[in-house]
Structure of Nephrocystin 3-like N-terminal domain-containing protein:
Amino acid sequence: MSALKKSLLHHADISPMSKGRSDFLRDLYLFDPGAAKDKFPPRVQGTCSWLLTHHSYMEWLDSDGPRILWVTGAPGSGKTVLSTFLIDEFQNTASPHRILCFFFSDDKYALQKSAVALLRGILYQLLLQNQDLVKHALVQWNVTAGKTFEELSVLWKICTACFDDPGLGDVICVLDALDECEA
């Protein structure tokens, strides 16, 4: 079991949560994002650390408000390795006011190649780390009898409401291989 899943399960086990909220999160869950990350081979020691001193990364990290750091490169150039490095880096420098979510798109696996799966994966991690945000989704979930998680437009509205919540704090989303996600 990945460290993220242990952390998320531990968090879910000790936090007071209504039956509706726990059912909601159980239905939202698709797979362990940490296990998807862990399937990649570890990076070679000393690689990737260049990014931490790159001016674009430092500017992105220090700026306020919504921002995107877009890393591009040819296939096989190490973008996924760089993504796993960043996830590890953010997990090792945890902050109580920062939420880390990540998703690895992969066109070889049904659960990792759709926009619905991507949003469900991000929402699951987000809602486990800030349970107050569940309020943005519970109404939709109750109205649709749990079918909320099959509709991209509804998931997008829930994500938007969560990210607009004034109590959210900083969120870092690492999204890898978006080109392998279905249009």
Summary: The chain is about 50% helix and 10% strand. The first helix runs from residue 3 to 14. The beta strands are 98-104, 170-176. Residues 3-180 form one domain.
